[in-house]
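ok so for the tutorial part 2 we go from a plain amino acid sequence to predicted structure tokens. step 1 is just haveing the sequence, like this:
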Amino acid sequence: MRGADIVARSLAAAGTRHLFALSGNHVMPVFDAALDAGLSLIHVRHEAAAVHMADAWGRLTGEPGIALVTGGPGHANAVGALYTALASESPLVLISGHAPLGELGKGAFQEMSQAAMAAPVTKASWTAQSADTLVDDIARAWRAAKSGTPGPVHLSIPNDVLDATVDARAPALADFAVSQEEADHGFSLDGAKRPLIIAGPAMMRKDLRQLEAATGVPVIGMESPRGVNDPSLGRLAEVLKLADVVLLLGKRRDFTLKFGQAFAPDCRVIDVHAFPRNVSLRKSGWLDEVRAALRYRPAQWSSLKSNPDGPAHPVELCREVHKLLNAPGAVLVSDGGEFGQWAQACLSAPRRIINGPAGSIGSALPFAAAAKLAHPDAAVIAMLGDGTFGFHASEIDTAVRYGLDYIAVVGNDATWNAEYQIQLRAYGQERAKGCELLPTRYGAVAAALGAHGEDVSRLKDLEGALRRAAAAGKPACVNVMIQRVPAPRY
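step 2 — the prediction. this is what the tokens look like for a chain of 490 residues:
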């Protein structure tokens, strides 16, 4: 059996359904082996998109998404996307092709220290040394991605290892079993008047509603790079200052919590790294108080109205999009600077994927494609800025080829608005230069790639455009000119 066959059969044995891949010299044996292993190849247009799709798959299913890219520049293109997955604690495995072992140090084609390059943005990173050990390599990568705090893992496999023929054992499901994490001992919060549980990204994918209902303690998930200023969490900053005991559930005291300074000086903080078996508390009215604070949105938003013949305010745009998300199992993807924050403040859905604590942008279209694969019967709506759209616009071609009929809604203010707002605040209007974009017709771009595309410049045309996109039966992009406003701050 070839090394490539061992890789493909091992992934299939683990339960992998899709390989998010971009072809290249070093990985073509795996493309061939995937046919016999029954693996679906989702062939993307940029290596980073493959990693973003594996990231979204991991977050939505809890099982590692698998990205497959070629070595050298293909690997280098993929590495940047690993940081988004690492910060979001998303289980995935990046498998990269690699120059042959027998040619290393001789100037091999696309020779690179790939494992070292990926190490800072992964839980583990190494290079396979033999086809005989590939079952163990794949199983080790899978388990590492899922165990403890989930995260990305990288494995490089040299071309001569993939081509080698060996007598290898057949992979078994037991190879990929992850031992159950031990629950922390129970915690008694009796005596606390204003306790909070704050969950980190991975813990947010557990049943936090049940935990809150069982304990009576407010449970807050934090995954936004805006931290305590996350507009989707209303008056979070005020709530944190009032808490007297905080249980951090897989949540670091990082920049999003102002390195612990977000709490009152006398607040007791408890670090918990596994889902608690039991949290004891006498219930109080504090839960309702916190819920109301997190729900807070300015009253004027509900009555906000712009000129119907002009660009939309982001609130009005989200008001129309909300109608599409009002469906069982819907998935909201939110990505971008200021517009992404408006989307998170105004929209909710049973499932949500955002760019996460890394604060990167550009992942929305790959995220949406993977979400549609994971939940083919659900409405998938991606909200992204015009700057964001440019990163992976060609992945609309991928969505068209595989029939992934999500709807991408572009909030187009013809600028890198998050950075423009920094310029305004820090340097003034006269020095706010260099962040301008063109008011490009991204709907027409999407249509040229085979999707349904519409460009909306007037607020009054928005409702009809969204309705037609929802009925198109194929990937759709609605590009909406919006007012250039800063993200909400309460």
